[in-house]
Amino acid sequence: MQSIRHGLAQGQRLGWQGQAGQCVEVRRGRVEVEEILWVESQLLCVRQRLGPGSCYVLHSSGWVSVQAVSAAELSLPAPLVDCAAWRRLGRWLAGGWRGLCAEWMGAGRGWRAHGR
User: Fold this and answer.
1) What SS3 state is found at 6?
2) Closest by alpha carbon to 34, among 14, 52, 51?
């Protein structure tokens, strides 16, 4: 799996929508990871301080933020892109548009209805 490295200055914060099982690796510096969990109808905020060489695995999918206690470098997994889903959406939208145009033209409201 490919990863992306992020450099953070002291006090800088990085936030993203994390996925359960995703690993945050600290390459250098110190950071504080904050993960929000929904447990038995309660919101819990989990905070963990990590040093160089440490790794934190996300417990669940949701909002995650990392703040640099000192200048730090993180390694996060690169986001996965499902191209097939985008292609299906494009085909669905194109098919729906053609259907709407045909219905509109067939109902006598198109340019033919105006005698052009």
Assistant:
1) strand
2) 14
